[in-house]
Amino acid sequence: MAIYHYSVGIISRSKGRSATAAAAYRAAERIEDLRTGEIHDYRKKKGVDEKFILAPISAPDWVYNREKLWNEVELGEWRKDSQLSREINVAIPVELSKQEQVELVREFVQEQFVDEGMIADVAFHNLASHNPHAHIMLTMREIDKDGFSKKKQTAWNRRELLEKQREAWAEIANRALEKAEVDEKIDHRTLEEQGINRIPQIHLGANVNAMMKRGIATDKGDRWKAIAEFNGQLAVLEKEIEEEEKLSPPPASPHRTIYIDTARAVRSSLGVNISYQRLDLEVYLRTNKEAEVITESDYFHQLEERNPRIALNYVKAIAHVAETYKSLSDNKTPNLDVWAVKMVNSQMGKFQLKDNNVSPSLERKPGRGRTR
Prior knowledge:
Elements (H helix, E strand, L loop, with lengths): L5 E7 L6 H9 L2 E3 L6 E3 L6 E7 L11 H10 L7 E9 L6 H15 L7 E6 L7 E6 L2 E4 L2 E6 L6 H21 L11 H4 L10 H9 L5 H29 L18 E3 L2 E2 L1 H13 L4 H5 L2 H9 L1 H20 L8 H18 L19
Helix pairs in contact: 1-2, 3-4, 8-11, 8-12, 10-11, 11-12
């Protein structure tokens, strides 16, 4: 399945890194660093399927020599905390052939970076695996026939340019998928922006993937599994809600009794009925009682008896979402019915995966509580 992964990083001396070492590792080559005298030899590294350098037409011929290129970058930087290169990592759709994968990245790099004046050193890793990806090392100074400029091009750091490049990757990749007659699509937007009620999955990377295959547990791998399990449960719950809503009358008006048909409220240990999420948010927005109204209701006690932690997470999620809703301007205020469900479920999921952030037990006022 095609996934969207696009990360941006900086190779900097302040972090103990060098452009020569990074380039040698990405390309599985031997490069001598003329500034330090170190030799970086990664010729035994496996999994490098393709590599090339793209440069503006104004660049001299020596830039296509990887060792010469990155030594010039290193020798041109004098500070001990110098930023040497920007690096982009992209996941390439597995549905494409090797040739299509390479041409996709080449088109993207030429259009978004080289045409802007950067030199790009591109290495493709593991194209035949389930995790094909490319590393794109970019220079940070403009270049002409006389070499690199004295000043770095700060315009390349603009956030709007980075966002444009992220969006462009999705557009170019989707064109390649369509050309290959593949129905899959990728999207650069966050799940929340897409209106998808899921917790964003994390990118494992080659090392963690390999360890998971060998049955070796890692913190990152365990978190990936926890997110996948929760998203799977949430998908099942949403399907159940959708099916029941087809057979059920519309949710009760907030002007009537808030808690109607309490037996429908507790659907599973994951959460509560879709209509209650909207109504509970109405309580937070329209009254001053806030959490007390929810925590004193019959359905909250039913949920609390089944799973106290999720009950507390639910109240905390409602409060968080209500504050978000109040902070929105009038022209950005979403439809409450749909928005409340997605936001509350998403927030609950985040709380459940971060045990250290779970709310402490709610303090009840003396004499208040469930009536018998």
